[in-house]
Prior knowledge:
Elements: E1 24-27, H1 31-42, E2 47-50, H2 59-62, E3 66-67, H3 77-94, E4 105-108, H4 112-127, E5 133-136, H5 137-143, E6 153-157, E7 161-162, H6 165-178, E8 182-184, E9 189-195, E10 198-204, E11 207-210, E12 213-216, H7 222-227, E13 236-246, E14 255-256, E15 260-264, E16 270-274, E17 278-281, H8 284-288, H9 290-300, E18 304-307, H10 331-334, H11 344-357, E19 365-376, E20 383-386, E21 393-397, H12 403-418
Parallel strand pairs: 1-2, 1-12, 2-8, 4-14, 12-21, 17-18
Antiparallel strand pairs: 3-7, 4-6, 5-6, 9-10, 10-11, 13-16, 13-19, 14-15, 15-16, 20-21
Helix pairs in contact: 1-6, 1-12, 3-6, 3-12
The protein binds flavin-adenine dinucleotide.
Amino acid sequence: MHPFPLSLASPVEHAAALPGSADLVVIGGGVIGIATALFARRNGMHVVLVEKGRIAAEQSSRNWGWVRAQGRDPAELPIAMEARGLWRELAAQSGEDIGLAETGVLYLAGNDRDMENYQAWTRIAAAHGLDTRLLSGAEIASIQPTATRRWPGALWTPSDMRAEPWIAVPALARLAARQGVTIREQCAARGLDIETGRVAGVVTEAGRVRAPAVVLAGGAWSSLFLRRHGVSIPQLSVRSTVVRAEAAAPFPGQAVDDALAWRPRADGGLTLALGSAHDFFIGPEAFRQFLTWLPLARSTFANTRFRLASPAGWPDAWTQRRQWNDDGPSPFETMRVLDPAPNPAFVERIARLFAERFPAAGTPAITHAWAGLIDSMPDVVPVVDAVETLPGLVVATGMSGHGFGIGPAFGRIVADLVAGRSPGHDLTRFRLSRFSDGSRLELGPAL
Ligand SMILES: Cc1cc2nc3c(=O)[nH]c(=O)nc-3n(C[C@H](O)[C@H](O)[C@H](O)COP(=O)(O)OP(=O)(O)OC[C@H]3O[C@@H](n4cnc5c(N)ncnc54)[C@H](O)[C@@H]3O)c2cc1C
């Protein structure tokens, strides 16, 4: 078994000296932070991006690589569609092969209720001019001819895409650096510099950077970072297990059914995962946010394995420090790369389900197994908003399992928010105040 390719053992690629001041500091070197920094630079800003570990070493390299508009919340759909166009442009500008391909995305129905949900979603797609349609069982067989399982129908968006996460996001960071973004890995932001009630910069482990604007794109760490500054977001994370495998036979398109997800990779292998099964490690934040999360927890209960204690060093560990001084190490330096162990039972189940569905391909040889902590919000849509109580701070986090595909567009949007420009989309659904203004949480379609 090979180790996961991005880790603390990976060489530091971006070690720019930190300037004393900038127009914008971006915290977090995942797809959201990098895209934000890149577009802010293109808006003419002097941008510094700090990453506590390695660029893209957390969620942004560990995901399935699906760049999909299919199944998105109606408020996200136009943004996801913009993102697909931006992925094409950025792939070309990067000059690297990031494995971007228009492979289509296929959701295979397990039962009639799935088909009803899919049918309802086709109306949303049609309203936005997306090429999504329902497929019959016979049509599925022409797309997945080697599968022995028969599904009653499917939802299919031929224009959806994929890219190779652990290649693509570092390539975007290199593009951003070439275009003038100052990037520094192995550099945690310990806290915000606040003067007379507004953001005046960021205190990092390598010193202070003064800036009138800060974007927090800290993935699973955002809630821990914000709470210390009096900002509460009901963000929790689940562990999701993924493998890279090699199958004996060539293999058609990417798809997910009620148990298994599969995607042919640009390197000839397959990325495989359980469709929605995940582990949830309970910590104090989970208790605090219990009521807010209850509606979503009910609907995902069957797919969740509850674990009693969030491990040491994780954002919501029982032993996690919630307060620290900016002049000493913060929790972000203690855990530079969050690299959860994969669930071994899930790895076995993935291999078994694959062999059952595709007997001609044989038992897949697993070359890599890894996990990622997916940061989520209780209504399955992110927070992308300026923080009213801390002028100068914009939060872009809680991507809820789909930030890779949509990332470039949210980066473009956040850069425009920082520049005081119109974001070009209605962002009401992603407002921070939805958790405190008395409005009823509306769950996303969770397709
Ligand atoms: C197993 C799995 C499968 C997924 N599948 C898909 C998919 O197919 N398609 C899709 O669109 N999405 C998918 N996702 C979700 C997607 O990967 C994430 O939504 C997206 O990568 C989030 O990007 P981000 O930049 O917000 O967070 P991250 O990629 O987690 O980046 C946040 C970064 O911030 C850094 N950081 C945090 N705090 C600090 C600090 N104080 N100082 C400095 N740096 C800090 C962290 O080290 C980290 O590198 C999947 C996720 C997982 C884990």
